[in-house]
């Protein structure tokens, strides 16, 4: 079954007990609030858990290492435009490496995010900013509806703090279910032998 944005909106409105909407372009209070908070809710739920459908990998482009990082790291890299949350950095795509996210305030175009690490060739594992609702799975759609409902409850229900707290609690209680469901769909690779990893890095 294909998941649509409007179906998630109406599920969120159902949690609030308000009227549903027929179009994302409606000029009703319900549609206006869903439009206003949609992207924020979607990004929050994506960041809260490493959903399988949103997991991405990308080889990073090298940047000059900004001053102040030389004692801890050797390299700086630009982050992908769709990166919402970094999970791991691997040297040569294999060996995990420590990293730090920071802002380059000396950048000519303004403050720019970058990743500092000692990986000479860095593969980034991250959660991507998935916008197409057709890629969402059912559990994510359900949790996104709960998060959206919590955000739009204040303007639509006239600051009903009890309802907001209830929705946030239901959302938080659903996270363990998401972890269990995702774990059953993922099989981690066996860790590399330390001696073999050291040999590869020495070559």
The total count of strands amounts to 8
Radius of gyration: 21 Å
Low-confidence stretches: 190-203
Class derived from helix and strand content: alpha+beta
Order of helices and strands: HHEEEEEEEEHHH
Any key phrases for this structure?
203 residues; alpha+beta; 4-stranded antiparallel beta sheet; 8 strands; 41% helix; disordered C terminus
Can you describe this structure?
By secondary structure, this protein is an alpha+beta fold. The protein has 5 helices and 8 strands, in the order H-H-E-E-E-E-E-E-E-E-H-H-H. The protein has helices at 5-16, 29-48, 138-156, 161-184, 194-202, and strands at 55-59, 61-63, 75-78, 83-91, 95-97, 99-104, 112-117, 122-128. A hairpin with a 7-residue loop joins strand 6 (99-104) and strand 7. Helix 1 packs across helix 3, helix 2 packs across helix 3 (138-156) and helix 3 runs antiparallel to helix 4 (161-184). The radius of gyration is 21 Å and the shape is elongated.
Question: What is the secondary structure topology, with strand pairs?
Answer:
Elements lengths: L4 H12 L12 H20 L6 E5 L1 E3 L11 E4 L4 E9 L3 E3 L1 E6 L7 E6 L4 E7 L9 H19 L4 H24 L9 H9 L1
Antiparallel strand pairs: 1-8, 2-3, 3-7, 4-5, 4-8, 6-7
Helix pairs in contact: 1-3, 2-3, 3-4
How would you concisely characterize the structure shown here?
This protein has five helices and eight strands.
């Amino acid at each position: 079954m294909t998941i649509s944005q409007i179906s998630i909106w109406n599920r969120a409105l159902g949690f609030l007990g308000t009227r549903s909407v027929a179009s994302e372009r409606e000029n009703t209070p319900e549609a206006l609030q869903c439009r206003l908070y949609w992207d924020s809710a979607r990004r929050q739920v994506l960041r809260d858990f490493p959903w399988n459908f949103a997991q991405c990998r990308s080889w990073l482009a090298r940047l000059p290492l900004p001053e102040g990082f030389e004692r801890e790291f050797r390299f700086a890299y630009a982050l992908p435009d769709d990166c919402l949350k970094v999970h791991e950095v691997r040297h040569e795509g294999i060996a995990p490496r420590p990293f730090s996210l920071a802002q380059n305030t000396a950048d000519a175009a303004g403050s720019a995010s970058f990743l500092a690490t000692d990986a000479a060739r860095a593969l980034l594992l991250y959660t991507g900013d998935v916008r197409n609702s057709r890629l969402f799975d059912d559990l994510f759609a359900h949790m996104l509806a709960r998060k959206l409902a919590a955000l739009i409850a204040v303007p639509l229900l006239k600051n009903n703090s009890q309802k907001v707290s209830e929705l946030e609690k239901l959302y938080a209680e659903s996270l363990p279910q998401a972890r269990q469901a995702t774990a059953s769909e993922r099989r981690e690779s066996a860790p590399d032998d330390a001696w073999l990893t050291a040999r590869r890095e020495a070559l």
